[in-house]
């Protein structure tokens, strides 16, 4: 029995599904039942009738799945530390201090944050839902945690006052205008597709700015054949599957925590039901409010 057959057998026996983010290794994406961005996967996990969710991503994603479906067993088959850098940037204490300084503001927290920060937030958001949630939440002032670049992007799309936290995605934030100009010199004036976690100088020269799902959709429907893509390189796998005839050029953007799930670790976790996400019930209860509000304000 090969790996794929074994995985198929285990999933059937245990009523399990495998979820994978677009930034995962290509072979992991290929064995997943659902591949998507954070918002889509949060809906799939929440609505699934599976008993076990195997989450291939980074830790906050697996924890969010557990918070939304505490009755399900969530397995996180990462080898080593697979934690988003932004999970460590904001803390509950820092967020509460910002709330104290801005008592009329609501806290909208990017899903790329710890469960403890979600527990002191009014709503979570993803890059695809951030603007809609900020627009729909009942407040004129928004404390936006933790990504300053996504906060800047949202501020450009709304009349509400955005109060940003001083955090960022290390992978997106480090990309400079010079990096993109070099790609333009190499490949010509092609369309530029950027994630809103990029700095403003990158967003300002981009043809399209959006989430991973948004970038995929734009590239698929565009009549153009060449693109500079400014987000984590793992998305290239789905881009090429959707549009094999098109060319995609990337600056060096690798999120190493996203590359720590392997087919072997998935099989091991599912076979032995190990690497389970276990969380305090009170923390789940508190953090769930902000995640439910994410779906409420985003209309999902």
Describe this structure as you would to a colleague:
The mean pLDDT is 97. Strand 11 (226-230), helix 13 (236-242) and strand 12 form a beta-alpha-beta unit. The chain contains 15 helices and twelve strands. The chain starts with a helix and ends with a helix. With 300 residues, the chain is of the alpha/beta class. Helices cover 45% and strands 16% of the residues. 47% of the residues are buried. It has helices spanning 3-14, 26-31, 38-47, 59-68, 92-101, 115-118, 130-136, 148-157, 170-173, 177-187, 200-204, 212-221, 236-242, 263-272, 281-298, and strands at residues 16-21, 34-36, 52-56, 73-75, 106-110, 123-125, 141-145, 161-164, 191-194, 208-209, 226-230, 247-249. The strands form three sheets. It has a four-stranded parallel sheet with strand order 2-1-3-4, with helices on both faces. A four-stranded parallel sheet has the order 6-5-7-8, with helices on both faces. A four-stranded parallel sheet has the order 10-9-11-12, sandwiched between helices. Helix 1 (3-14) packs parallel to helix 14, helix 3 (38-47) runs parallel beside helix 4 and helix 4 packs across helix 15. The longest helix has 18 residues, at 281-298. It folds into three domains: 3-82 and 258-278, NadA-like (Rossmann fold); 86-168 and 286-298, Rossmann fold, CATH 3.40.50.10800; 171-255, Rossmann fold (3-Layer(aba) Sandwich).
